[in-house]
Amino acid sequence: MESLVEPSVRPVWEKGAPSLAIVVPCYNEEAVIVETAAALLAALDQLEAAGRASVASKIYFVDDGSMDATWPLLERLAAEHTRIVAVALSCNRGHQNALYAGLSQTSEDMVVSIDADLQDGPENIAPMIDAFLDGHEIVFGVREKRETDTWFKRMSAEGYYRLMRGLGVDLVFNHADFRLMSRRAVDTLLEYPETNLFLRGMVRELGFRSTSVSYARRRRLAGESKYPLRRMLSLGWRGVTAYSIAPLRAITLLGLIAGGIALALIAWVLAVKLFSGNAVPGWASIMLPVLFIGSVQLLCLGVIGEYLGKIYQEVKRRPRFHLREIVGKGTPENHRVRPLADRVGEGQSSD
């Protein structure tokens, strides 16, 4: 892996490691939350001892309107450990909104998002930080092995990624929401104004230098998955409708195909009517308008869908681009778009 950070600059991290925020959305996780907190605190200790994260690092638990004892447990953990921050949403808003809320509360140099069941093991945070220190602003956690998943879960999940790719949606295969993002990447993500969140697609769209870390998925610590088939389908449909107008274009294509078939059938109906003499009286007068109007309707729906798709993309008001670096323009000190190397160099002696 090629390093973007000059060797003479990198020791600055070793003297003053970047701060880390770990964001953990929680919904009805009373069975695992204490064990999860202990595992993440231990992981934070190891990262700090190894010089990968500073002592200012924190863990943000976001309670997504749980109906069990998750929130009281989080309140107790936050009171016992100064490195734990507990955030409660007013009601259940869904995993993506809870994760977004957690990201919005952080101010650290690096932010890792991870699920409370710890199937995506915290031991993978260390190689993510190494990739960050090598100049990557986004590090995707990729599930290389899913042996702990059921056959149905594995096949449906992998089929979903292939379907999204077929619809033109740019996703990292087998990556969910376990990732590391730089401060700049998080701030840029928070500028997206849309309410129908599909974070794994939005993060991919940021376009900053990225890489991935592969790992084998573990079993849940306890409890049941919070992503049953119903929620998986809901998230999949959200991803399709948020990042692809392929279904609308499929209507246009279907209309064109139906129109071509209708023209051929119309020619056949006229041939039967005019030259064979075997047509049943009234048959041609029924078939011709049905074939013609049906194909025209499909084609018109497709054209309307094209315009609707354009309007849908416009109302999202997504940024047209993100700047990665500006050189030689007298960038203000507090400019939000700063190259990673600039922040790496902060704190260096002037001589």
TrEMBL record:
It is found in: Membrane. It is a multi-pass membrane protein. Its main location: membrane. The chain crosses the membrane at residues 251-271, 283-308. SUPFAM superfamilies: Nucleotide-diphospho-sugar transferases. It comes from the Bacteria. It holds the Pfam family Glycos_transf_2. Keywords: Glycosyltransferase, Membrane, Transferase, Transmembrane, Transmembrane helix. InterPro entries: Glyco_trans_2-like, Glycosyltransferase_2, Nucleotide-diphossugar_trans. Coiled coil: none annotated. Residues 22-189 form the Glycosyltransferase 2-like domain. This is Glycosyltransferase family 2 protein. It comes from Microbulbifer salipaludis.
